[in-house]
Amino acid sequence: MTLINNNQLTQFLSSPDRPEGTLNYHQLQGFLFAICCSPELVLPSEWIPLVFNEHEGQYDSKEQAESIMQALLVLYNDINTQVVEGRVMLPDDITVAEKAIDNVGRDSQLGQWSSGFFMGHDWLKELWDGYTPEALSEDLGSSMMILGMFSDRKLAKAFYQEIAVASSDSFEDYVARMLDMFEDAMKQYAHLGRCIQTALSEQASEPVIRKAKTGRNEPCPCGSGKKYKKCCLPGQYTH
Predict the structure, then answer these.
(1) pLDDT, the chain, mean
(2) Which of 18, 36, 160, 167 could form a disulfide with 22 if both were Cys (CB 3.0 to 4.6 A apart)?
């Protein structure tokens, strides 16, 4: 099997031969970041179909299919390693426009990353809602908002009108401030996911404490005062 590089993966995903709705490379990066930060492990068999909008990838050959799957897993593993090791940052190959407002929307590389992230988080929303304690919900909401708002100008405007319109910030100033906070929001989002993962893992590894059995001649735990064998021992109906 021939391993492909990121440029080849970019070309493959962007080809008109791919199903409509296939993620492009920068969308894929944002999507996988959301997957790697999930409170629960998400298996490749669950997330790979979403890359191609729930369709087959339309491969030219079995070898190409195997190479693309390998490339997807390598990218996933790279991002997951960064999340696990706390080395979270925007990918080096994403160019951030100097004027903050130019990064909003899918015509920008950051906007593409943001749209992929937003898709991934939305797919996992019920999982996050089920595991996020109320004390952390505000932190989750703020980081998700910052990371997702660059995907669409209407969405960014909606966040601005809800949060910052009463301030002295213009829309452009608000976007610039959110851009300055972007990587911190990535770190916070990843940290929240890892904290929940760790807590769940620790709960799963805790030994099960079994209650000691009540002896036949000991007082029944129901409080009747009778011996267990004369009261609630399974098979007895003298209570």
Answers:
(1) 87
(2) 18
Task: At 219, give phi and psi (nearest 5°).
Answer: -60, 140
* CB crowding 123-133: b at 16 or more within 10 Å, else e: bbeebbeebbe
pTM exceeding the 0.85 threshold for the entire prediction: no
Q: Could you give the CA distance from residue 53 to residue 50 in angstroms, rounded to a whole number?
A: 5
Type of residue found at 135: A
Helices (H), 17-108: 25-36, 44-51, 62-85
In 3D space, the residue among 204, 234, 232, 238 whose CA is nearest the CA of residue 219 turns out to be: 232
DSSP SS3 for 122: helix
**Tokens matching residue 126:** 């019920």
pLDDT band at 59 (very low <50, low <70, confident <90, very high): very high
Residue 29 has phi, psi (to 5 degrees) of -60, -45
The answer to whether 127 and 156 are in contact (CB under 8 A) is no
Render 125-177 in DSSP notation, one character per residue.
HHHHHHH--HHHHHHHHHHHHHHHHTT-HHHHHHHHHHHTTTSS--HHHHHHH
Q: Residue with structure tokens 């940052």?
A: 89
Place of tokens 């790279």: 78
Residue-wise pLDDT tens digits, 115-165: 999 999 999 999 999 988 888 899 999 999 999 999 999 999 999 998 877
